Amino acid sequence: MNVTVVVDDYCGTSKLLGEHGLSMYIETPRGSLLFDTGRGASLYPNASALEVPLGNLNGIVLSHGHFDHTWGLPEILRREGNLPVWASPFFDRQRFARKGEELEIAGSLFSKDDLNFRPVNDRTEIIDAIWAITIPLSERNPDFVPVDPDLVIKENGELKADLMEDDLSLVVRGINGYSVILGCAHAGTVNILERAALLFNTREFYSVTGGMHFRSQGRGFLLRSAKELKDKFSVQHWRPCHCTGFSAAFILGEQLSNVEWAHSGSSFEI
């Protein structure tokens, strides 16, 4: 089972484009999936440069509804047809980001009614040996949930804090055991691994890859999370990217073993 990072904030080679976004191509003997789509500008150019066959996709999984993970969706569906799209039923909420006194659109361009939509609730098998998992708000330890006060949703005409109820991650069973793939880890990286441990009865993971949402959090949050990850789980490979932030990744590298940035163009077996 192979994972290729097609879109990330940083590139591993000059032939690729970087953007604030994330997309990974997951190739298995049972089919291929795209996990997130980036924001649209670099997906197809990078896929072409990396010889990633997006025409072979069996479906798309969206980690949550933010623009940097979903705005590449229109072009994929236009080019590749009405592929099934797995996501939380809450992914299409009206989302905004506060920029001073202004509100910028931060959510998906699609509602689930526009899509060949497949809902993800708790633990949902996408294809053989790949599951999407969610965590109810009531079961997230707030000590490990990243806080983003500028992210809001509009419901019934009112703005409310966006608690990112739609956040989901993937658990993959490969030849090396279980691995976890994160989108932005809005539910908290520690909480996601705790959920995976509960659902799959293991605290040993071959790899954890993806956005860990440490960049916008304080050093105390990062160190607290790193200690919990080190003490509670056995992970052979940490592959942060996207919203983790370089500075946070350096600190993770001091606390954890085998930390390597998963930039655009990274490809690895799991």
UniProtKB/TrEMBL annotation:
<dbReference type="InterPro" id="IPR052926">
    <property type="entry name" value="Metallo-beta-lactamase_dom"/>
</dbReference>
<protein>
    <submittedName>
        <fullName>Beta-lactamase domain protein</fullName>
    </submittedName>
</protein>
<dbReference type="GO" id="GO:0016740">
    <property type="term" value="F:transferase activity"/>
</dbReference>
<dbReference type="InterPro" id="IPR041712">
    <property type="entry name" value="DHPS-like_MBL-fold"/>
</dbReference>
<dbReference type="InterPro" id="IPR036866">
    <property type="entry name" value="RibonucZ/Hydroxyglut_hydro"/>
</dbReference>
<dbReference type="Pfam" id="PF00753">
    <property type="entry name" value="Lactamase_B"/>
</dbReference>
<feature type="domain" description="Metallo-beta-lactamase">
    <location>
        <begin position="20"/>
        <end position="237"/>
    </location>
</feature>
<dbReference type="InterPro" id="IPR001279">
    <property type="entry name" value="Metallo-B-lactamas"/>
</dbReference>
